[in-house]
Amino acid sequence: MRITGTGHASMRIDTGAGSILCDPWVNPAYFASWFPFPDNSQLDWESLGDVDYLYVSHLHRDHFDAAHLKRFVSKKATVLLPEYPTSQLEDELRALGFTSFLKTRSNEVHELDGGLKVMIQALISPTDGPIGDSSLWLEHDGVRVLNQNDARPTDLSVFAELGHVHAHMLQFSGAIWYPMVYELPQAAKTAFGKQKRDRQFDRTWRYIDDLKADHVFPIAGPPCFLDDELWQFNDIHGDEGNIFPDQSVFLSEYAKVGGTNGVVLLPGSVSTLTAESIETTHPTDVAGYFANKKAHLEEMRERKAPIIAAEKASWRHPEIDVLGELKKRIEPLLEESIYLAKGVGGPVRFDLVAYDGEAVESIVVDFPGKQVRPYADEKVRYRFRTQRELIEHLIFIDEGDWVNSLFLSCRFSAARIGQYNEFVYAFFKCLSEERLQYAEGWYDEHEKSVDAEDTELGGWTVQRRCPHLKADLSRFGIVDGNVLTCQLHGWKFDLPSGKCLTSVGHQIRAEKTSS
């Protein structure tokens, strides 16, 4: 089996029974804020895109690059489609010209021509990616690979049960806007960033230890930020709170916990994998490349500046009545929302900074009142401040997922009262009838379900499944005093009261174990 690195979470896997291209991403994503690093735009994509199979793990724009898929990937390729609750991924791929689809069933092995076996595990909660995330397992001629990319399964046993895995590809770096965009003192921002960075690595080590693959490939991050307004987010400034460590940092941190089997893929690197060995060649010296990271980023910044400028020039739509359009689009969804609206529990304010950089229009999405209206001087649960043209552009393109566009762009600042509220972000990724109905149904089902199985942790009897996304707390749970932390997503619970310390809702069942 031959694995060619093609940047970020992307790779081409060649076997004797066919080739698979995974998650090709080249063009900037999220309002031209994210770029792949190292740069992969100069690879021979005409050849790389001539494949038998295409796997797009999910609809995040650093995995689903519509322009690149349309131009470079063979439309004869069969799409390995995850079993998602909505049809959006299939619909968007069909619109690009793909016609052949293998609609997989989650956690079910499918045998293709030539003895190639594949299995896709689809994660389908409203907080998994843009309504869905997935991992690809494949086997040919006794060699097994798991491409976990961004996905966060509650456990990896379903893959391990299919046989020993030889190569494990997984995310290790940040893919979020927290805490950088929050209006906090720098010391607090650094402290929260360091906590998140540490949690990212802890989760990665847990997955690696669970699967015990022969070789571990750090992929799916980090992006780089080439716009001057976002340059500070690159991990080149000696900031211990930066959540975007690169592959060289992964190798260093992995070594501290005894890891010796890490394999870095640069764009153009090739790993030849057998059941007994691996041999990897690179287009340049890996250590030397990352040692000169700042210089590479500066060269990319200069080269990509015209692309960023062109994108920025397309965002303004002064003809759009923002308040009127938001009322028309969001108020019907508020009327239909029960669980998400109740979960948000208060008004959310958007401060839109005008073209002159000074005037501000404040608009409130009033979840209890089920309306969109001008701000009326009240307290709000969340406040977002961004450029007016970004909201105009979201309206212009009829974007149904603001999380997978505005928020991941980091082109905003935020403040909140109280704990993190997952329902705010769940709602703003569900600005379509299909997505909202699915999310409401999912929360309805999980509100009514009772997790009766228990586990013993640190002198406490607690429900075995995390109230957040059902992670197995017997594996991911750690108790420190009276606080339980679920390491899968870093959520914390006060055990005596059962209260979630990370977000509203999500009560846990727990009692002190009798001595």
UniProtKB/TrEMBL annotation:
Pfam families: Rieske, SCP2_Rv3818. InterPro entries: RibonucZ/Hydroxyglut_hydro (IPR036866), Rieske_2Fe-2S (IPR017941), Rieske_2Fe-2S_sf (IPR036922), SCP2_Rv3818 (IPR057330). Residues 462-501 form the Rieske domain. SUPFAM superfamilies: ISP domain, Metallo-hydrolase/oxidoreductase. One of its GO terms (molecular function) is 2 iron, 2 sulfur cluster binding. Keywords: 2Fe-2S, Iron, Iron-sulfur, Metal-binding. GO terms for cellular component: cytoplasm. PANTHER family: N-ACYL-PHOSPHATIDYLETHANOLAMINE-HYDROLYZING PHOSPHOLIPASE D. This is Rieske 2Fe-2S iron-sulfur protein.
